[in-house]
Design a protein that fits this description.
It is a single chain. By secondary structure, the protein is mainly α. The chain has 12 helices and no strands. The protein has helices at residues 8-24, 31-38, 45-56, 61-74, 78-82, 86-93, 99-116, 125-129, 136-146, 156-164, 173-183, 191-202. The two termini are 29 Å apart.
Length: 229
């Protein structure tokens, strides 16, 4: 059962202080959050988040950032993207993982947005999930980062950390999302992803987490951790 007694206010205060220290060291936000922050208008932001999140799957942050910027410079709208060939899209996002498959998905998404949604990114989970290459992680990130809605985006970092600490006991990210919906105060829904993604990259790594440097040691059960540093 999920742990309903987690001191979320304290945990998020610690994580936000830790994240601010990272910023002082010149370490950027996760790539999609960074691009969303840079987006100049509310109408442009959902498109930026959708494109960059599709590119980000199984791709390192630095590659996601550079690939997304290259493509968005050529295709700041669905109308502009659909005019590119799939090879041109693939070349723009290379070396992102599965770049040719992602190019196919992005071209199809742009075409669907133009012909079915007046060129706009949908703002509901159900419709976003109907787009090719869009799963719950991508859809929830578009809702939270793109539209500012209360949505919980659970990727591998969020899933791993929430289980390792014992905050939830789940087997797959979808179960973690549902568990967090029951125990995580709504004001934290949007923030949990970008905070834990950075934390998972820097401290709570998949293998040999840096437990000696972890500011959340008092709140962690270290489930499944056999070796740490």
């Amino acid at each position: 059962m999920p742990n309903s007694s987690v001191p979320w206010d304290t945990i998020f205060a610690i994580l936000e202080t830790w994240q601010q220290d990272l910023e002082k060291q010149g370490i950027d936000l996760p790539s999609v959050s960074n691009l969303a922050f840079e987006a100049e208008t509310d109408t442009y932001r959902p498109w930026v988040v959708l494109v960059s999140t599709v590119i980000s799957l199984r791709t390192k942050d630095a590659v996601t950032l550079s690939s997304s910027r290259r493509l968005l410079a050529k295709a700041p709208t669905p109308e502009a993207l659909v005019k590119l060939t799939k090879d041109e899209i693939a070349q723009s996002i290379y070396p992102a993982g599965f770049y040719r498959t992602k190019a196919e998905h992005l071209h199809t998404i742009a075409d669907l947005l133009i012909h079915q949604y007046d060129g706009k990114v949908p703002d509901t989970l159900e419709v976003l999930l109907s787009l090719p290459g869009v799963g719950r992680k991508t859809a929830n990130l578009v809702l939270s980062e793109g539209f500012g809605q209360d949505a919980i985006c659970v990727d591998t970092h969020v899933h791993r950390i929430c289980n390792r600490t014992g905050w939830v006991v789940t087997k797959v990210p979808e179960e973690t999302e549902q568990a967090l919906r029951h125990i995580l105060p709504r004001p934290y829904w949007r923030r949990i992803n970008w905070l834990l993604v950075q934390f998972g990259q820097q401290i709570c790594r998949p293998q040999s987490p840096l437990c000696s440097q972890c500011p959340l040691t008092s709140f962690c059960k270290r489930q499944g951790v056999s070796k740490s540093r």
